[in-house]
Structure formats: structure tokens, C-alpha cells
């Protein structure tokens, strides 16, 4: 019985260690482990800080795309970022008749390449202090370094700071941001 108990304990420990190993290189997001072997949507649904983003992605019909092969870089606004929008904005955007606008806003947060923070910082440095990033939605974001952090300025002049960088996914990377980026017009 002693041998069985030891073997059972060792097996449980090995399983627990394997799960931790898959997430250990990634930061926690919204109180949840982020696993490099899961895709963007599979990880985002576990973040308590991204429930609004997940609802918006589902309402826009973009979940399947973001579960695809990629690679993608997603600048992921938190619930607090969405809450900072004018009252009623999120509710209005989630209505079916506003799907095209919602898709445009969300795809302004997605780049069709995997760009780690060091890559963005290098581009900013090489371009003399700022670098324009084109998104899948056709938006142009201006990346800069401010106080050692990447800041993204959208086409309306709104600025978002990357609060958590380099959350590796099986199909790209997520960078958590503190504001919703908006397209021009």
C-alpha cells in the first residue's frame, strides 16, 4: 500500500508539474494561467480581465479567425478599458446591427504577425523613436517607448499602454493594454 501511495503521489506531482511548466514562461492574465499551447481565444476566455473583449469577439464573429493558425499579435484591452468608453458604447457595439463597426474596432487591435515586445521596441528604436504598425483592420497604430513601456497611439490620438507583454499563444502573442484603440472616422 505504501508503494501504491508513493506512486500515486508521484504521478499527481508529475501531472501538476507538467501543467505548470506549460504556463511558467507566460505571465498570469486576469488571475488565470496562460498556456503557450492554447490559442488566443482558448486563453482569453479564462481571463477575468477580458470578459468584455471575449464577448465582443464572439459578437463580431471573430472567434474562429482568432482560433486559426495565425500568427497574430493581439493588443487586448481589459474590461476596465472598455468600461472607460462613454456610457452605453459597449452595449451599442454588441448589437447585431453594429457588427461591422465592432469588427473594425476589434481588428484594429490585431496584427497579422507575431510581434514580441522586444521586436516592437527594436522597430521603434530603428525608426527614430516611433514605428507605425498596420493592423488587420487597416488601422495605423503608432508605437513609442514611454518610461520603458510600449505605448500605442490610435488614429484618433488615443493612447494605450502595454501593461502585460509577451503572453505567448500557440497562434501568436497577446499584449494586454489599458485602453480601447479606435479607428479614424
Automatic annotation (TrEMBL):
<dbReference type="InterPro" id="IPR036378">
    <property type="entry name" value="FAS1_dom_sf"/>
</dbReference>
<protein>
    <submittedName>
        <fullName>Fasciclin domain-containing protein</fullName>
    </submittedName>
</protein>
<dbReference type="InterPro" id="IPR000782">
    <property type="entry name" value="FAS1_domain"/>
</dbReference>
<feature type="signal peptide">
    <location>
        <begin position="1"/>
        <end position="23"/>
    </location>
</feature>
<dbReference type="Pfam" id="PF02469">
    <property type="entry name" value="Fasciclin"/>
</dbReference>
<dbReference type="GO" id="GO:0005615">
    <property type="term" value="C:extracellular space"/>
</dbReference>
<dbReference type="InterPro" id="IPR050904">
    <property type="entry name" value="Adhesion/Biosynth-related"/>
</dbReference>
<keyword id="KW-0732">Signal</keyword>
<feature type="domain" description="FAS1">
    <location>
        <begin position="37"/>
        <end position="181"/>
    </location>
</feature>
Amino acid at each position: 500500500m505504501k508503494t501504491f501511495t508513493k506512486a500515486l503521489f508521484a504521478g499527481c506531482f508529475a501531472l501538476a508539474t507538467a501543467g505548470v511548466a506549460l504556463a511558467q514562461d507566460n505571465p498570469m492574465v486576469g488571475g488565470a494561467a496562460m498556456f503557450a499551447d492554447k490559442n488566443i481565444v482558448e486563453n482569453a476566455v479564462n481571463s477575468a480581465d477580458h470578459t468584455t473583449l471575449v464577448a465582443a469577439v464572439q459578437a463580431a464573429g471573430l472567434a474562429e479567425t482568432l482560433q486559426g493558425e495565425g500568427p497574430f499579435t493581439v493588443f487586448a484591452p481589459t474590461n476596465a478599458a472598455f468600461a472607460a468608453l462613454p456610457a452605453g458604447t459597449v452595449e451599442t457595439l454588441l448589437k447585431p446591427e453594429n457588427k461591422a463597426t465592432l469588427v473594425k474596432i476589434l481588428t484594429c487591435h490585431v496584427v497579422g504577425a507575431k510581434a514580441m515586445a522586444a521586436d516592437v521596441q527594436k522597430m521603434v528604436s530603428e525608426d527614430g523613436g516611433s514605428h507605425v504598425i498596420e493592423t488587420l483592420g487597416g488601422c495605423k497604430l503608432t508605437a513609442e517607448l514611454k518610461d520603458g513601456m510600449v505605448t500605442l497611439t490610435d488614429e484618433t490620438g488615443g493612447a494605450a499602454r502595454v501593461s502585460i507583454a509577451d503572453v505567448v499563444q500557440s497562434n501568436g502573442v497577446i499584449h494586454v493594454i489599458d485602453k480601447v484603440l479606435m479607428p479614424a472616422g
